[in-house]
Design goal:
By secondary structure, this protein is α/β, with parallel strands linked by helices. The protein is 42% helix and 13% strand. The chain is built from 14 helices and eleven strands. The strands form four sheets. A five-stranded parallel β-sheet has the order 2-5-8-1-9. It has a two-stranded antiparallel ribbon with strand order 3-4. α10 packs across α11. 33% of the residues are buried.
C-alpha cells in the first residue's frame, strides 16, 4: 500500500480530466489524515476522482450508496444468525461490513449521498471519525488502520428524501466543493467516453455543440437543475446509434433532437413556477444551438435600402425630356 503524496498526483494525471485544484485538495487532506466531504451536483466526478485516488495509492475502495435503508448493521457488519445458533457470539461468526473492512485494511470508505443516511447510522460514523475505532457489542473493539480514510459526498441541490447534516459531521471533515467542469474539460470527457463507440469517425463539431447544449440547460430560466456531462455522453451515443437505425447522419435534426429529448428530458429539474415542459425547453435549446437559423449574407440593393417599411422595392422614376440651355 502506497502512502498519499506527490506520486499520487502524478498517477492521477492520466485518469482524471481537469480537476487539478480539487485533486490537490483531496490528496492533501488524505495526506494530512483528514476525512473529507465532497459537495457538488451529480456528474461532477466525485466518485471518479475517489476511485482514481484509491487505485493510484493501491488501497481498497469501499463504496456505499447512502439511503434510508443503510442501518448501522449494514454499514459496520453483523453476526451470521445461522452460525450464532451453533457457535454463539464470537469473532468467527462475525461478518465485516464495508466500514469494518475499511478500518481493518486501511482502505478508502466512500459514502455517497451522506445526507440520505439515517441519523443513527451517522452517529456510528461520528465515533469512528473522532476516536479512530469501532466498538461492537459482543465482539469488541476494531481499531482503525493508520491509513483508513472516510470520504463522503452529497448533492447540495437535492432536497427530496434528504436530511440536514449535523454540525457534528461538518466539524469532523474537511469540505471540498466541486462544481461543473469547464466546457473544454466536458468536451474532452465526452470525446473520451464516446470514442470506442465511434463507428463513423470523429465528429468534434457535433460533440462541441452537444456540450454547449447540455451546459445551456444549467442556465435556462425555467430549469432549476440542469444536466451533467453524462447527458452529453448519452446524447452522442444515442445519436450515433439512432442515425444508424434510421439511415441518417447523427447531426440530422430528426436524429439529434430525438436523442436529445431521450438523453436530457429526465435529467433536468424545472422550477415550480415553470410553465414550459422539459421536452419543450430541450427542443428550444436544440434548435438554437444545434440547428441555428442561417443568417442571410446577401447585401441589400440600393432600391431595397430605400424601400418604405413593409413594401418591396419601388420602381425608378422615368426621366422626362431634357431641354438643353433652359
Amino acid at each position: 500500500m502506497a502512502t498519499f503524496g506527490p506520486q499520487t498526483l502524478d498517477a492521477l494525471a492520466d485518469q482524471v480530466v481537469g480537476r487539478r485544484r480539487e485533486t490537490e485538495l483531496v490528496v492533501a487532506a488524505l495526506m494530512a489524515k483528514r476525512h473529507l466531504l465532497l459537495e457538488g451536483p451529480p456528474g461532477t466526478g466525485k466518485s471518479t476522482l475517489l476511485r482514481a485516488v484509491a487505485s493510484a495509492s493501491d488501497r481498497s475502495f469501499q463504496f456505499i450508496e447512502g439511503n434510508a435503508e443503510l442501518t448501522p448493521a449494514r454499514l459496520a457488519g453483523h453476526f451470521d444468525p445461522a452460525q450464532v445458533l451453533d457457535a454463539g457470539y464470537s469473532e468467527d461468526v462475525w461478518v465485516d461490513g464495508p466500514l469494518a473492512a475499511a478500518l481493518r485494511d486501511g482502505g478508502l470508505l466512500y459514502l455517497e449521498e451522506i445526507n440520505r443516511i439515517p441519523e443513527e447510522t451517522l452517529n456510528l460514523l461520528v465515533t469512528v471519525m473522532s476516536e479512530g475505532e469501532l466498538t461492537i457489542p459482543r465482539l469488541g473493539r476494531i481499531d482503525a488502520h493508520p491509513e483508513f480514510r472516510m470520504v463522503a459526498a452529497m448533492n447540495p441541490f437535492d432536497s427530496v428524501g434528504t436530511a440536514r447534516i449535523s454540525g457534528a459531521i461538518y466539524d469532523r471533515v474537511c469540505r471540498v466543493s466541486m462544481d461543473y467542469q469547464s466546457a473544454e474539460d466536458e468536451q474532452a470527457i465526452t470525446e473520451f467516453a464516446t470514442s470506442e463507440a465511434d463507428r463513423d469517425g470523429a465528429h468534434p463539431q457535433f460533440t462541441e455543440r452537444v456540450v454547449e447544449l447540455v451546459r445551456a440547460t444549467r442556465s435556462h430560466r425555467d430549469i432549476r437543475v440542469g444536466s451533467s456531462v453524462r447527458g452529453s455522453v448519452d446524447l452522442v451515443l444515442l445519436a450515433r446509434d439512432l442515425g444508424v437505425l434510421r439511415g441518417l447522419p447523427m447531426d440530422a435534426r430528426e436524429v439529434g433532437l430525438d436523442a436529445a429529448l431521450t438523453a436530457l428530458s429526465g435529467r433536468v429539474q424545472l422550477h415550480d413556477s415553470a410553465t414550459a415542459t422539459a421536452e419543450g425547453i430541450i427542443t428550444e435549446l436544440y434548435d438554437q444551438i444545434m440547428h441555428p437559423p442561417e443568417a442571410d449574407d446577401s447585401e441589400p440593393t440600393s432600391d431595397e435600402e430605400s424601400s418604405p417599411p413593409g413594401k418591396g422595392p419601388q420602381p425608378r422614376p422615368v426621366p422626362g425630356p431634357t431641354t438643353i440651355g433652359s
